[in-house]
Amino acid sequence: MTSEATKLSVAVLGTYTRQDLIYAMNSITSQDYPDLELLISMNELDLPACAVIDTLNANRKENLKKVWIETEKRTYPMRHHLKKISSQMQGEWLLCLWNGSALYASDSLSRCVKGADSGSLIMGIQVLFEDGRGYIGEQSGGVLFPKQFVKSASFRNLDLEKDLTLQIGKIFQFCEVPFIRTNIRPHPPCHKEYTQTVLRQNLKRWMQQLEQGRLRLNALAYTRLLRMAYAYLERHPYQERNRQKETYREENDQEKNDQENHHQEKNDQKTEEILSDMDEWIQYLIVKQKGGKWEIKDSDKALICHLTKMKEILRKKRFTKMILRRYIKKLPHASCRRAVMVVSEYHLWRSCFQSVYDCLLCHNYEVTIVYAGFQHSQIIIDADHMLETWNRSGYEYVRCEDYDLSGQSPDVIFFCKPYDVVDEKWRIEEIEKIVRHIIYIPYHMASMRSDPESIRLMYQLPMHFLAWRQLVYNQTVADQIDRHSYHPKNQLQIGHPKYDVKRKDFTREESDAYHKMRELADGKKIVLWNSHFAIDPLHADSVGTFFTFGIDFLKSIPNAQGFFVIWRPHPLFWENLRGGGYEQTEQTYRCMQDAVTAKKLYVDRGDSQWPAVFAADILISDASSLIESFMMLQKPVILTQRVEKETHMDAVIQKASSQKQLAQAISHLLKNGDERQEIRRRWMNRNYFLPSGGQCVAGRLAEELERELFQENDG
User: Fold this and answer.
1) Is 95 helix (H, G, I), strand (E, B) or coil?
2) Is the pTM of this model over 0.85?
3) Whole-angstrom distance, CA of residue 49 vs CA of residue 45
4) Which domains does the chain have, with CATH numbers?
5) Which helix (DSSP H) or strand (DSSP E) does residue 145 occupy?
6) Helix 219-235 with 298-314: angle, nearest 10 deg
7) Residue 44, class by beta-carbon neighbours within 10 Å (0-12 exposed, 13-18 middle, 19+ buried)?
8) Which backbone phi and psi does 10 adopt, to 5 degrees?
9) 533: number of Cβ within 10 Å
10) How do residues 143-172 score in pLDDT, each as one tens digit?
């Protein structure tokens, strides 16, 4: 058996400190083994997910073919996680790392697998270290399990902490190679002990605040509390017991007593299960926020207090059901549901949030817009200009530094950008500690790109993993998430709020811009030209075509016949053009001015893309999310490429990789019209998650929130 021919799986399990987890991840990503998959299954409280993702994104190599991460809110035993790993494993061999262990060297896997017998269990050498002492010795440890064993029940019942040779009862093939490194640390603080400490320090004060009305349940906490109460009320079979007493009235007293004792035992067992669930949820609420920038939110404090009181009721032996019913009847009901939308640029608000905002208001939500200024690494954001735009919009907003997330206790929070380039307290890692229902609506609709960096930015950031739900708008993106994401289960395949944008809903500024563009065109067909910011011709992944043949197109515009051009480059285009030191920069501005003077060109620098999108008849664009926004309106698209490449849209768009091809494509559309319109319509209905029956995407989202959070599931 050769390492080149064999896929190998590595599983990470158990409890890790952040430091040990980063070390373990680095030990895996640095392996010289050519074909690896990484499987992680942990209880959520034991897994610093952001540390995993950041380390993977910084160090991942081509040999790490697949990454799958599963986290559980509940504190499941190890056999649960082994079962998960067994079901997901695709390699021929499996190595399990647990409780702080890591691979010893970059060649550990390749040396252990080399020459291994198929079907054997391979055991290597475990090297032990201890804080403050360093190296303390070595022993047998670290096992490569063959696939057939991993798929068996014997694997799922293993106790990794005990002697595997005794449990398995098989002869291991020993490999005299330093295989596993284990850093022996004092056991991390017990979650239960930490929870009890927090309760001792705070519960009395929280109870007082609850009685004074200073703590209130939000809608989600109220719903969860009712579910736990009704679980108890529905599981107690009093009615069944009474029916049996009536049926067997003639039987002897001993039989009736035996039956009642049986039901009482069953009741006690169910009560203990519910009490355990309550304890587990209290622990989750407290431990989850440990070390975070935000305090436990007020709604969670109220929930902890109510759960504590309900536990006292359930431990009573008499009239429990009646007392519990009276208690839940007196619970203060949340007056409305609360949502927060984290925003930066106003044009993204129009594309991602506005229809959702309006719809949620109609569904009894209190929605707060929180402005968290986005700091781009390549462009200086004029915060004053951005806020002035927001002030003119008519929508009220709160600066992020002025919004108390803990005190307001929203039920859900919306993001449209996955990047952690905002105030530290508003990064996804911190938000997720106290607001567990995060909804990510991507600002981009970019199913056109598949280079490694684009894959990372679109599918592999902490936001994509930690978001409770992320909106997915077509099958191509869904497939990409399944293939590249670390956690593909949070998809919500309902479309994108961009679908909801209508011209009748334009603001006054947008309407004025639209009419200005139409007037400038003076009855001619309007071509919208969208230039990507990645214009460096020497960069292999640059999708921008401006310096390839775009500048030639710009020079040709003054002599264009039969059409008018709206040029709307990406905002970063101008920054890259000015800051790149390109010799064509001066020529670009000169040609642009010539086209404007000839009344053949309008340069759109407005905050909103929608006036240009609705005004235009044809789109010319590098790979960009604007393509799919334009296609929603059933208009033709010409995709410009430096080198012609196959895309999933080839059947419904035209492509150009030279100035000559671009001119021919425009001429053809002007002469023959949109010949692919019907094909495109059928294709989009087949591949896109489009709303039907007059429903909007925002309406579908509101219905999903109602169903998943407030009705059927436990959230």
Assistant:
1) strand
2) yes
3) 10
4) 3-184 (3.90.550.10), 191-311 (no CATH), 337-495 (3.40.50.2000), 503-687 (3.40.50.2000)
5) strand 134-146
6) 10
7) middle
8) -120, 125
9) 22
10) 889 999 999 888 888 888 787 877 777 678
